[in-house]
Write a structure and sequence with these properties.
Shape: globular
Structural class: alpha+beta
Oligomer: single chain
Order of helices and strands: EEEHEH
Radius of gyration: 12 Å
Strand order of the largest sheet: 1-4
Number of helices: 2
Helix content: 25-40%
Distance between the termini: 22 Å
Strand content: 15-25%
Length: 69
């Protein structure tokens, strides 16, 4: 089953954190929020993700293409 995650918003309430990155890439514990969300779904066996990108979506792509977990 595919998991659809929406990552298209600017996150204006996190203005000081997302001036340079999208809100889904704000770090918590050294990893982006999106990584933690995906890890939780993967724990329950959902490993097929569709990430709907918007604001600064290239940064999200670059992170997951270049970072090994």
């Amino acid at each position: 089953m595919q998991v659809v995650i929406l990552c298209g918003g600017k996150g204006t309430r996190l203005r000081e954190e997302n001036e340079y990155r999208p809100k889904s890439m704000v770090n918590i514990g050294g990893r982006p929020i999106l990584w933690h969300i995906m890890k939780t779904y993967a724990h329950y066996g959902y490993n097929d993700f569709v990430i709907c990108l918007g604001y600064k979506g290239e940064m999200i792509k670059e992170y997951f293409y270049t970072t090994r977990q």
